[in-house]
Amino acid sequence: MSFTCDTKMRENEALVSSNGKYRFYVQPSGNLVIKENSRTMWSSLTANIEIFEAPYILSFSPLGELLLRDKNKFLIWHTVNGDSFKNTEKIEDIRKFSLILSDDGELYIEDNYHNMYWSSWPVRLYNQHIRYVEPMIYDISICKETIRNKYIYDLFSNPNIYNYYEDPDDSTTYVRKYYVNNLLPNESLLSIYHATLNVTDTEVVFYYKYKDKMHSKELASCSKNSNVKELKLEKNGLYLYCNDNTYKTIAMVPENQKYYRLSIEKRYKMDYPDLMIYNTKTKEFLWGLNPVKFLYSVVPNKTKYGEYNRIVTANTFTTFDRLISYNGGGNHVYMSNSHGLELSNSAYTEFKSLSLLDDNFYINDEIIIKNEKNMELSYDGINDKLIITNDADTLWELFGRKKCNKFISSDENCNTL
């Protein structure tokens, strides 16, 4: 059998010695064997390894290596050709490899000059092989294989930018990350937080655990007459594409061709996992099922939407939200999951949320101002301070520039209540 990109051995196929005495084949258990009638002469010892799934296929790399993989293209066993490690000579162009089963029952790999590279007989010099007990994706790069990872934890709007060369001057050091930008029917976005995003033939559903109970939320679905084609993270949002050439918009974000990531997050100060879009360059969360808000003001009993269907007015300013300055050229204050309330010049780590509810002002769950009507929280970017006003009166200020020991102070020049 020749070593080419198209050469495969499946479970119902075999290589037979010319005298008909020996057979080499792939068993349904994932084991490679050489049989003399019913007697096993050699085995790869790869039967019934729990993490791998049938059917199993033996591939013949043009580099002169055998690769046994499961249905997910996880590598189980392969022979070793030391000359292929760097492959600076492009051996696939100058040597042609063959797999031979001799009349003595020896399985071996040789090139067109009859040099031996591997043998099933342990007495031979070249009999090395590697077995795997953990899932590892392996593609035959010179065959330009396209492989999807079974375990998908992130979607990237441009997956290829995360591949890299360990040595930029050495083309053999290329590292593929196997990232994808879509989920196909019956695939899932996984997490370590008891939460998954499942794509079925008809819909996309987010499942998450909160207070020891599983909850679900349908994001989008295709019509009864059209199944799902794919869920895809694009440069400007998250979309469900259907087979009838329609699509459903799940999330909209500013157009950015490279740096968006969709993942399931459960960060410090979050009560339960959330599906979120993150900019890997600016390190900002831009969208979540639990909405990430881009606020211009915080007021009681009012929600207003702006560009990209973002919430720009609400009664709560909480983790991952921004409160944009009304006078400061786009400056904003940010509620960080790690550092709390981040003003331009300082941070208050104890802050988790600021809320105006039922004529009360809350920091986290504690009432700070009680029974005041028509309150509004805004951010003065020029002076780097938060302000709560009541019609024409200023009720509270929180400064970022001033070195204050407390976030509530009787000093009229420092965080006055």
Automatic annotation (TrEMBL):
Residues 1-122 form the Bulb-type lectin domain. Gene3D superfamilies: Bulb-type lectin domain. It comes from the Eukaryota. InterPro entries: Bulb-type_lectin_dom (IPR001480), Bulb-type_lectin_dom_sf (IPR036426). Coiled coil: none annotated. This is Bulb-type lectin domain-containing protein. It comes from Piromyces finnis. The lineage of its organism: Eukaryota, Fungi, Fungi incertae sedis, Chytridiomycota, Chytridiomycota incertae sedis.
